[in-house]
Specification:
three-stranded antiparallel sheet, metal ion binding, binds pyridoxal-5'-phosphate, nitrogen fixation, iron-sulfur, PyrdxlP-dep_Trfase_small, Aspartate Aminotransferase, domain 1, transaminase activity
Length: 380
């Protein structure tokens, strides 16, 4: 049986050339980038190159890129700065953030801060007026993600960032799902801090970055040997960083092709979904990532559907990877006022350049058969 991987928002495979770029740093190039001998200098220059490649991906300056162990650490580092800089006040976090943002922000309440969720409208969008009304003199940080990992909904980040700029509040953006899928311009966006994760777009797992605007002084979170310009201590994971850089360069030069290809797959799947009775496609009218389709089939719970599809060789997800296995409706769908019964049936399909229209047609046929089988049972 052929297996079809359609869960690229949880983790995409390594992009072309990434493994080859990494291998020397796992084998003969064992130098520590902090060492001054030639092996150290060689490793250090590999970091410099990767930093430039990652900066190019999002139009930032390499000096603004701080490598971290992934998106989760980058989000935690950004949030932890609030407790370091202030004694009180509040943080505003969109209701649809990944738990890697929500949980550290909520943790601030233990240190005397208030934590408020910024609601989204039923289309999954943070409205500018809502954010404007929520910011006051005690707001220390605002956090809104660029694109949602479940629905794929894209926010109007430059507008939200400019509201924060006017009010003098730092704006943090989790761009983990947007990077490599959309054209991002850190410098033009007005964002003060942005977080990235390599494994979402063709780099290895366990490496990411926090990008900080030069206008913002933000404290370090992990202290020690002073690596990363004293902004994130710990010996750098050179091979992973090199892989991150190589993946960033690959997706930068393949972005148009990726978008066109994924959009074609998305349209093919959605066209077929429309023919299946009882299907809801979430946020269908919103601007979404080209590679993401989030939908529910009436009468199914997502775990049953995931298992039925797994048996037929399709790997899909019920939403955020960390939420898999939990039988609670997605907080993202709840924030969009989707009823619990529909939300419990949510299935996410996320494509990559490796997927084909044929695979999408096969998946749609499998879904249609499951729906037919279910209707047949119900009508017996
Ligand atoms: C939007 C978003 N933010 C953060 C993360 C966490 O990133 P990482 O897996 O690199 O820790 C994820 C992972 O699913 C994500 O989708």
């Amino acid at each position: 049986m052929a297996f079809t991987y359609l869960d690229n928002n949880a983790g995409a495979g390594l992009a072309e050339g990434v493994l080859d770029a990494m291998l020397p740093y796992l084998q003969q190039q064992q130098g520590n980038p902090s060492s001054s001998h030639r092996f150290g200098r060689f490793a250090h220059s590999a970091l410099d190159k990767a930093r430039q490649q990652v900066a190019n991906l999002v139009n930032a300056d390499p000096s603004q890129v701080i490598f971290t162990s992934g998106g989760t650490e980058a989000n935690n580092q950004a949030i932890a700065g609030v407790a370091e800089l202030f004694h009180d006040g509040k943080v505003l976090v969109s209701a649809i953030e990944h738990p890697a943002m929500l949980e550290p922000a909520q943790r601030l309440t233990r240190h005397g801060f208030e934590f408020e969720l910024i609601p989204v409208n039923p289309a999954g969008i943070v409205e500018a007026d809502t954010l404007t009304d929520m910011i006051d003199d005690t707001t220390r940080l605002v956090s809104v993600m660029w694109a949602n990992n479940e629905t794929g909904v894209i926010q109007d980040i430059p507008t939200l960032a400019s509201i924060c700029k006017q009010k003098g509040v730092p704006f943090l953006c989790d761009a983990v799902q947007a990077a490599g899928k959309l054209e991002l311009d850190f410098n033009a966006s007005g964002v003060d801090m942005m977080t990235l994760s390599a494994h979402k777009f063709g780099g290895p797992k366990g490496i990411g970055a926090l990008i900080v605007s030069p206008d913002l002084e933000w404290p370090s979170y992990i202290l020690g040997g002073g690596q990363e310009d004293d902004k994130r201590s710990g010996t750098e994971n050179v091979a992973a960083i090199v892989g991150f850089g190589a993946a960033a360069e690959y997706v930068t030069s393949h972005l148009a092709e990726y978008q066109q290809h994924c959009q074609q797959l998305r349209e093919a799947l959605e066209k077929r979904l429309h023919d299946i009775p009882g299907v809801t496609i979430f946020a269908e009218q919103s601007q979404r990532l080209p590679n993401t389709v989030f939908f529910a089939l009436q009468g199914f719970d997502s775990d049953t559907m995931l298992m039925a599809l797994d048996k037929q060789g399709f790997a899909v997800s019920s939403g955020s990877a960390c939420g898999t296995g939990r039988q609670t409706p997605s907080h993202v769908l709840k924030a969009m006022e989707i009823d619990d019964l529909t939300a419990l049936g949510a299935v996410r399909v996320s494509f990559s350049l490796q997927n084909t229209v044929e695979q999408v047609e096969q998946l749609a046929t499998a879904l249609a058969k499951e729906a037919e089988r279910f209707n047949h049972l119900m009508n017996r």
